[in-house]
Give the backbone structure.
Amino acid sequence: MQRVKVVDSHTGGEPTRVVVSGGPDLGRGTMAERLARFKNEFDWFRSAVVNEPRGSDVIVGALLCEPHDASCAAGVIFFNNVGYLGMCGHGTIGLAVTLAHLGRANAGAMKIDTPVGVVEAILEDRNVATVNNVVSWRDRKLWPVDVPGYGKFAGDIAWGGNWFYLIYEHPFQISPGNVEQLTEFTWAVRQALTKEGITGSGGAEIDHIELYGPPQAKGAQSKNFVLCPGKIYDRSPCGTGTSAKLACLAANGKLKPGEMYVQEGILGSVFEATYAPAEKDMPGRVLPTIRGSAYVTGEAELLLDAKDPFRNGIAVGA
Ligand code: PYC
């Protein structure tokens, strides 16, 4: 019987399950090397932790590790119902709040090692944290795609720790009552991008699709719907997606460094975001800062019984 200690939280409605102990030993390599080992040798563990019957398609897992970079307080690998995430903004806020809940972090800044680089989380109090995310940029402006059954659309392609396709002009209302329709449309967009060979830099798959509409929350500039890789929508405004959006606003000259941008998510929760220009040798790139709140919802010990036919979770995701 394998025993796995987890702490659950949600950030703006989007759940994070931090694996505190009982996870696989991925060695002492870089976080990218450990991610490769996780994928190749322990993918069953990913599915066992987040998928049914212990989890659900929407849970994002966070395997807490010793950092490779000695300046970091912790290392983390984020995963979901179908695979792995480079970075995760809501998950990093959830992780910081979870570490505070466990008495492993105090208010202030902590560096966190991820497979796509070092990020910083600044814990304000037991529920509020700010993430200084990885360098983000817009790769291509309003790139066209023909979506079968829907027609032609254009979207920005941007990196914010994951690859995003951001659509501003579309006929859909961004509201919780419409998630089925929004999911079907954005899934069709994702498939069309794959079919047409439209990728991020270096041929990277674009596995997050974002739609924007007018805001409802006080102080917000826009409301979004974000489709995540496993055909599941982000309940929060999406930290990496908001980073990608900041990069696009900066590229269009629509947001100045340090100026506040408030992104509302599908449920009405918000992330406050700003950016600083990245170093001189990376013109057009930005360093995003995302602030949000998370709440711990549970502590549990998962039991993985070798005799259980569903020990490895039920993988019915996309
Ligand atoms: O907040 O970056 C994020 C995120 C990515 C996928 C789900 N949430």
